[in-house]
Amino acid sequence: MTWTDRYLATVLRSIPEAKRADVEQELRSLIEDGIEERVGAGEDGVAAERGVLESLGDPAQLAAAYTGQPAYLVGPDLFPLYRRFVPRLIAVAVPIAGIVMMAVKLAGGGDPVEALTAGISGAINIGIQIAFWATVTFVFLEWAGPARQARSEIVAATGRWTLERLPKLASGRISVGETAGEVVTVLITMGIFVFVATLRTSDASGVEVPLLDSTFTSVWLPILLALIALRGYSHVLAYNAGRWTTKLAAYHALVHVTFAIPVVVVALSNQLVNRQFAELIGWSGLADGRQPVMLAIAVTTILATGWEIFRVVARARRASDAAPRLDTSPRSA
Amino acid sequence: MDEDELLGTHRQELRRGTVVLACLLALREPGYGYALLKKLEAAGITSDGNTVYPLLRRLEDRGLLESEWNTDESRPRKFYRATKAGAELASQLLADVSDLTASLHSLNGRS
Question: Is the interface score ipTM higher than 0.95?
Answer without folding.
Answer: no
